[in-house]
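Question: Send over one sample?
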Amino acid sequence: MTQTSAEAAGGAAATVGVVRESGADERRVALVPKAVASLVNSGLAVVVESGAGERALLPDALYTDAGATIGDAWAADVVVKVAPPSAEEVGRLRSGQTLVGFLAPRDTENQIGALRAAGVQAFAVEAIPRISRAQVMDALSSQANVAGYKAVLLAAWESTRFFPMLTTAAGTVKPATVLVLGVGVAGLQALATAKRLGARTTGYDVRPEVADQVRSVGAQWLDLGIEAAGEGGYARELSDEERAQQQKELERAITGFDVVITTALVPGRPAPRLVTAAAVEGMKPGSVVVDLAGETGGNCELTEPGRTVIKHGVTISSPLNLPATMPEHASELYSKNVTSLLELLITDGVLAPDFDDEVVAASCVTRGEN
C-alpha cells in the first residue's frame, strides 16, 4: 500500500465511509469495490457499512477483497452516500465530519440547515459546476444518462405498438414516433435509445443551441420559434406570453406522436408544464407519456408522481428514481463521480479542500459552522 504524507508524518490518513442507503427504493451505493480498491491503494482507509452494496448486487466480500473493512461507516472522516440524508441520518453524524452526496440544495426542504447546525462539512454533487474539468464529477449527468435510457425501455414496455418498423408476411408495421421534450443529458440519451430501438425520433427544447445535438443522434428537431436559454446549461423560466405560445404549439404537435418523454427542469422551480390535459386527450389511445420531472411536479398536467395511470386511453408514467432501477451501472458511474471529487478534496491522505478552487467552492453547501 502506498504510504501517504499523513502517515509519513506520523498522523492517520483520512477514512472514507460507505453507508447503506435507507430509502426503500434506493438500490444504488456510493462506491463500488473497484473505486474502493483505488482509494485503498492511494493510502486511504475505507470502511463499508454491512450490506451497503447488497441491493446493487455487491456483497460485503467484494469490498473486503478490495481492501475495505466492514464496520461503522458513519464514524468515518468522510461519509459518502447517494440519496440526501434523512433527519435520522444527520443525527448519526458528528461535528467535524464531511459528507459527500446528493443533498438537494435547491429544494426548499432539505437537511442542509441541520448539517450546518451539526457542524458537518457537506459537498453536494448536484452543485458541481458544469465546466470541462469537472465533467468527470458530474453526477447529475451520469445519472441522467441512466434515466434517459430507462425511460425509453419503460415507454416501450407500456406501449401497445412496436418501436421499429416490421416487414412481415402479414404486412408492414410502421415505426413508432417518439417525441422527447427537454434535450439535456437525459433527453439526448432517450433520443439515442429510442433510435436504436427503431423509432422515428424528434426532440424539442427551448434552447436552440441543442438542435445540432439532437440531429447528431439521428433525430429531427421540432422548432416552435421559442428561445429560452439560461445559465449552467439549463433553460430559463418562460414569460407568460412565451408559455402560452409554447403550450399552443406543443398541443398541436404532441397529438401526432405515439410516445412522449419529458425531461424538462428549471433549477429551484416547479417543472414547466409542457403536456396539457388537452394534448393528452388528443393523442391516439394506446400512446404513452413518460414524465421524468415528477419529483418537481411533472411536465404533464395529468401526471401523478410515482404512479402509472391511464387517462383518455393514454398511459402516463412518472417514475421518481429511475437510476435506482439500474443499480449496477448507475452505482458504477456515480462511484467514478464521487471518487473524482474525493481526489480533489483529499491531498496525500489529508482532507484539505481548497476553497479557492471553483469546483470545491461551488459544491460545498456548508463548511460545518455551528
User: Anything to note?
Assistant: The mean pLDDT is 92.
